[in-house]
Amino acid sequence: MEGGPGIFAGAVFLLFGTGLLGWTGACAARRAPVAEGVRPAVAVPLVLLAAGTSLALGLWCLLRR
User: Fold this and answer.
1) Could you read off the pLDDT of 49-60 as tens digits, one per residue?
2) What pTM was estimated for this model as a whole?
3) Which residues make Cβ contacts (< 8 Å) with residue 9, sequence separation at least 6?
4) Between the CA of residue 61 and those of 10, 49, 64, what are the distances in Å?
5) Residue 2 — very low, low, confident or very high, per pLDDT cuts 50/70/90?
6) Contacts of 54 (CB under 8 A, 6+ apart)
7) Of 11, 22, 27, 31, which is most buried with the most CB atoms under 10 A?
8) What is the maximum alpha-carbon separation in the chain?
9) d(CA 53, CA 32)
């Protein structure tokens, strides 16, 4: 990957993953629904998987430049 786009993509993935983890943690702490109409037992693991995938992609993008 070229330097500029790789850094941008990595930063976007890292920011999204971090924001998603923070939002999920805040919702779980308040016992608020994480996703509308979805049971928390299903939503939380899926959101954590998505956030972890986003963080891993962000690190991959930054390390590949």
Assistant:
1) 999 999 999 999
2) 0.85
3) 1, 58, 61
4) 5, 18, 5
5) low
6) 13, 14, 16, 17, 20
7) 27
8) 43
9) 23
Q: Which two tokens stand for residue 2?
A: 């070229």
Residue recorded with tokens 């070229």: 2
Please state, in angstroms and as integers, the Cα–Cα distance from residue 29 to each residue in 23, 44, 52, following that order.
Answer: 10, 12, 19
Interatomic CA distance for residues 49 and 7, integer angstroms: 23
Among 19, 48, 43, 17, residue whose Cα is nearest residue 31 = 43
In this structure, are residues 13 and 1 in contact, taking their beta carbons and an 8 Å threshold? no
- Residue appearing with tokens 């930063």: 11
